[in-house]
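ok trying again, last paste got cut off:
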Amino acid sequence: MGFSKAVVCSNCDHLKFYVADKLVAEVEPDKKMFAHLRYAPFVADLSNAVGDWGDLRIDGFLQGKHVISKSMSGRGVDQEFAVLPDDTQLNADGADTTRVIMRVTDEFGAIRPFANDAVKFELDGPAELLAIIPLP
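nice, full thing came through this time. structure:
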């Protein structure tokens, strides 16, 4: 059977789901099940997409106007290892610090949360590693 329902949190008022550029679902926020939330999640039945394989695109709308598109790869391949510092310049005074986020993404920049290849991290120069905190 596999994956057939998607839950998406958004402040949009309408979402369209496409698999391999084919419209497979259109949904409104599920205000019946989540009446207590200001922005109810969307629950999309993607069972008509079962058997199709391709990239997933979600288009978001506010008051009938297209405001956002998000795409995720259907290939299931880790594409890029990104290193993203909060600050690109620091004062080398021994007190300045920054956070650096490292993540694996697909070809659309969507985070691949289950990427599990080993990463070796080394520092060169006047720097000190304070902590490594894995995100869930």
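cool. The first strand starts at residue 5 and ends at 8. The chain has two domains: 5-72, 75-136.
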